[in-house]
Amino acid sequence: MRILYCHPLKENTSRDCVAFVDVELNEDVRLYGLRLVRQPDGAHLIYAPTCGQRRAATFSTPMAKQLTELAVEALGAVGHDR
């Protein structure tokens, strides 16, 4: 599992989307446009994009945690490149 692309966004509020990320889960599956959201307590959570009113995907708690960690790491790396 790896981050293919991380696009940071300007933060506006305490609970805000801070980046969009594209993820390769394995050699067969890639997900695009996942939202990395900063919670009011400063923690981050990853969300799959929506398709109309419904979520396009959901993740188990362990996978969501791993994806979030990878996305936060990628966001930090992009921030250092700027």
The biggest sheet amounts to:
4 strands, antiparallel
Biggest sheet: strands side by side, in what order?
1-2-3-4
Helix/strand/pairing class, anyone? alpha+beta
Shape, principal axes of CA atoms? globular
Using only CA atoms, what is the Rg? 12 Å
What's the pLDDT, averaged over the residues? 89
Low-pLDDT regions: none
Alpha-carbon distance between the two ends: 25 Å
Total helical elements: 1
Number of strands: 6
Description:
By secondary structure, the chain is an alpha+beta fold. It has one helix at residues 61-81; strands at residues 2-8, 16-26, 29-38, 44-47, 50-51, 54-55. The strands form 2 sheets. Strands 1-2-3-4 form a 4-stranded antiparallel β-sheet, covered by helices on one side. It is globular.
Map the helices and strands.
Blueprint lengths: L1 E7 L7 E11 L2 E10 L5 E4 L2 E2 L2 E2 L5 H21 L1
What's this entry about, in short?
The chain is α+β, with helices and mostly antiparallel strands.
What attributes characterize this protein structure?
82 residues, alpha+beta, four-stranded antiparallel beta sheet, two-stranded antiparallel sheet, 44% strand, globular
